[in-house]
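help with this.
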Amino acid sequence: MKILFLLGWVLLAGAFVTGAYETMTRVQGAAMGAVLSAYDLWYTLWPGKLVVTQIMVERHLHAALWEYLAVPLLSLPAWLLLGGPGVALTWRFRPRYAEDAEDDENSLFLFDALAKAAEEEEDYDRREDDMAPDHGPIDNIDLDGGTNDRRS
């Protein structure tokens, strides 16, 4: 299964390369139309190999196979022909790691366990705001409302 996953990545890399080649031909002004078909790309890169492949398919398999299967497939963009199966293979055969359900369950109840442990402490008061700042004793204010001036 790992081989099919790696094959998917190779196909995706090929899709990116053919997409870059298609963009390069557009910048140079060599491409006409909305998309560059895989047939045009193959003919540009290896014209002799395309003709040999067509002759081999028509002679050894069947002429209709080239006409009704290969030509419609090759009319699609090359990045789509490589990228579609590449995405499918990498998604289907991606490595899956076993998740530890016990750890997930323990993490869900961690707050409850901490709250229970805090309630069991002796000096815990639920009504007290433990996040309130503690400024300590105030020295310069008397209890009767006057100020206690240390300079005098």
